[in-house]
Design goal:
alpha+beta
């Protein structure tokens, strides 16, 4: 059903799914062929991004979220391993993958520390089930805020080796502001990231369109405005 929905989407920053079927008792689906690496691989290799590239990546992801949210779809699993950096394109382009197509893993079966951090380190407080709020578009924006933070500072805002530790941090811990990690980060980007990371969804950006508006203002040279 998920593949059926996604296959109808057409956006330059979303992976294309062409077909699905069954062969020799195995379910398969046919996707667009990409050449590059996931953002998680880039992070593992500690590649540095220029500020222009960071803003471009976040804008493209926000455009993709605006599009899917408009179609009534919430990604729910936005993380670096689901973001693909296309190596053939100049300037850099990104593709958003895995709209719930990936296997749903039982929490207790996840033992790999990198898998734990790579999944639960990007979940919104409401997505963890600990914060009693409905999951909507703002959950995706929180996850995008964590990715934005990591792109700017070079480190994840929430760190832990087990699920309970990470879930506790997501609900109860406010990370240091990006400007505390790297002094050269512009204050306006610091403010945008911290608004995305608000624990209460009502205090975050309320739509991808609102976030896109602020990012475009910054891209155009504005550096002193009230975010959100």
């Amino acid at each position: 059903k998920e593949i059926e929905i996604i296959s109808k989407l057409n956006h330059p920053n979303i992976i294309k799914i062409y077909d699905t079927g069954e062969y020799d008792h195995n379910i398969y689906f046919v996707m667009e062929l990409l050449n590059g690496e996931s953002l998680s691989t880039w992070f593992r290799n500690q590649k540095n991004f220029s500020e222009i590239t960071i803003i471009s990546i976040v804008i493209q992801l926000t455009e993709a979220l605006k599009y899917v949210h408009h179609h009534g779809i919430i990604h729910r699993d936005l993380k670096p391993s689901n973001i693909f950096i296309n190596q053939n394109d100049e300037p850099i382009s990104v593709k958003l993958l895995d709209f719930g197509v990936a296997l749903i893993l039982e929490l207790g079966n996840i033992k790999d520390e990198s898998l734990v951090a790579g999944t639960f380190g990007y979940m919104s407080p409401e997505a963890t089930g600990i914060l009693d709020k409905r999951i909507d578009e703002r959950s995706d924006l929180y996850s995008l805020g964590i990715i934005f933070y990591q792109l700017l500072t070079g480190e994840a805002p929430f760190k832990g080796n087990n699920i309970n530790q990470l879930l506790h941090q997501q609900v109860a811990f406010l990370p240091p502001r990006p400007t505390k990690v790297k002094l050269e980060i512009p204050l306006i980007l610091d403010n945008i990231v911290m608004k995305l990371l608000a624990k209460d969804p009502d205090l975050r950006y309320q739509s991808a369109q609102g976030l896109l508006y602020d990012l475009r203002r910054y891209e155009a040279g504005e550096t002193d405005f009230l975010v959100g």
